[in-house]
Amino acid sequence: MQKASSLLNKYEEDFDNLSSINPGWSSDLRNKAMDTFREIGFPVRRKGNEKWKYTNARPIADVEYSSGKFEKMDSNDIKLIAPWHESWINLLFVNGHYQETFSGSLSTNIQISNMASNDLAENLTSNVGGIMDYSDDGFAALNTAFMSDGPIITVPEGENSGIVINLIFFNQGLSDTVNYPRVLITTGGNSIVSVIENYVGGSGDQTFTNSVSEIYVGEDATVNHYRLMNETDDTYDVGYGRVRIDTNGAFNSRSFFRGCGIGRYDLNVSIEGENASCDLQGLYFTNGAQHMDNFINIDHVRPNCQSNLFYKGILAGRSRAVFGGTVLVRKEAQKTNSVQSDKNLILSPHAEVDSKPALFIYADDVKCAHGATAGNIDADTVFYMRSRGIDLEAASRLIIYGFAGEIIDKVEIPELRSYLGESFLSSLPSHRFEF
Amino acid sequence: MSNSQKLIEIKDLHVSVAETEILKGINLSIGFGEVHAIMGPNGSGKSTLANVIAGRPGYSVISGDIVYKGSSILEVLPEIRARAGIFLAFQYPVELPGVRTWQFLKSAIDAIRNENGQEELKIRDFDKLLEEKRKLMEMDPDLVRRSVNEGYSGGEKKRNEILQLALLDPTLALLDETDSGLDIDALRIVSHGVNIFKSPEKSVLIVTHYQRILDYITPDYVHVLVDGKIVRSGGSSLAMELEEKGYDWVKDVVGEEVNP
Ligand SMILES: Nc1ncnc2c1ncn2[C@@H]1O[C@H](COP(=O)(O)OP(=O)(O)OP(=O)(O)O)[C@@H](O)[C@H]1O
Ligand SMILES: [Mg+2]
């Protein structure tokens, strides 16, 4: 208890310090969120805590963090560890603070503002906090209380130049530091935008990234959203994606996770207009003692909508992965078409996945299917390859790459696709397989 | 006959799977340039024999030996056997979801070349070779770009096996029921592929239930495998006799073993 109260004091202290420098527009929001955090704290309860059933948040909660301080990075160093391209708008945030934008000469109608700014128009700030409901979630409340820097991306009606916005949140890996990235994307009618969010960690003990992204998909708009978690063994990363889709809107999400100390991505998509769709695909790979938890909820509110949830996991070492995918089809959401699946390739007898796809259907005219699988590399498959001269290790690699390729190959940005195929995937630890 | 004239010699081979003895003393020698056919009832051990030669894990050799190009290969890993020229066309080819045919075959050919001190095939040369073999096997151009065997029909899978045979160009081809499930055109294409492969330095072992493939690929020897033993060997006419009279006929004459 002594410890717990000293930890809370630290948050109070940091909150006071932050309040003195943060812009006025967010103070109400942050104060309320801090109240909630004071009240509910971290979701560390082990009993009856359905949302955190397979992931113990205690190690994250037990560290006394100091706020990440801005330290300028050489952006050339960043270019080596995160995907970027000169035809994209690349925004770099270091330890939670905006550093710079690097891109070729681009002109775009998309407006990108920084939350840290004091003189933001009301129409930009009013949507911040509009989707993320933190009332029963300590991490989300904490992010909201401490948000200070982050992009507000506003895509005007009809914007369809195919621009890619690449957000790089780099955590230098200074021990015992926390940073709170915050993103808001709003899209006007009939627009298309692609946004990549990168959460990249340098190595260090117990650094903690606690992020929230809110995304509004407007009428007839399409948001292609990519999320890359590329943290290290010592990092904790708890992120939230909150999405609302309007009539005829489409939200396409491709998420890629390399495991870290404790990683969690809580993605919640609310389909609130008719004829809208979401397509959520993800790939996670974990090794060593890593832990990765994908907690996904899709809420079908309106009729004639579609959702596809397709995740794959590759697990090695003693790692754990959790896949919780829940689709709710409300009574009004007739003619819903929803598919969800989670497939896991388990490379080690000591790795484990808890995969729990679930469907709650209250409408009577729907098409829904779900399934989960976990299997090892198949011995017949390996022998087939060896009988062609391919050795065990190369065979295993081809199989793993093939497994992952099913998600990676669908990435529509060519430079990102090749980054994922080369850098991200090749970082898979080489592994000895036994048959 | 001296060893040097035989590509492979199987000597009194006893093999068990999960404690059950399946092969009960096989003697079989295949010389360079020869085509041998193995026929026999379901479950008699034909696939077991082909798989043991290719080095599939899961079989225990209790006694006997397999001598390939003059040395025992019992302790040799399957990939090393493959690189030394042993090729098995599977009775049930495996689907490799997500593994592109191009990547798979390029990896295979380079692994074999590396082992033999050759450098990796240039992409352009490989593409040319692959296209040549694809045409030989009359495969859809798209199949080569797809995942290996995924979503292929039974006949396409078998044709893909012979495409791999043509591409990898081994020394010993073990064809395990490659003819089963083929329509007349596919049978002709597959047989053509095998006949092109055949040469005085290369040998073929065909496992089959039917005479019809042997009309295209004439065997020098036909062996009948019953209950883990070769009970009869003869020339190509033996296959026709079997087709006419069935296996009961050979079962009756067990004991009159003839080996080439
Ligand atoms: N992995 C295994 N485990 C147990 N028994 C096996 C295994 N593999 C083969 N057998 C048994 O060994 C025997 C020979 O099988 P094999 O596949 O070699 O027969 P085959 O002659 O090829 O038959 P078919 O004509 O049906 O292909 C069968 O009785 C089979 O059930
Ligand atoms: Mg068989």
TrEMBL record, chain B:
Residues 8-252 form the ABC transporter domain. Pfam families: ABC_tran (PF00005). GO terms for molecular function: ATP binding; ATP hydrolysis activity. InterPro entries: AAA+_ATPase, ABC_transporter-like_ATP-bd, ABC_transporter-like_CS, FeS-cluster_ATPase_SufC, P-loop_NTPase. Keywords: ATP-binding, Nucleotide-binding. PROSITE patterns: ABC_TRANSPORTER_1, ABC_TRANSPORTER_2. Signal peptide: none annotated. Coiled coil: none annotated. PANTHER family: ABC TRANSPORTER I FAMILY MEMBER 6, CHLOROPLASTIC. This is ABC transporter domain-containing protein.
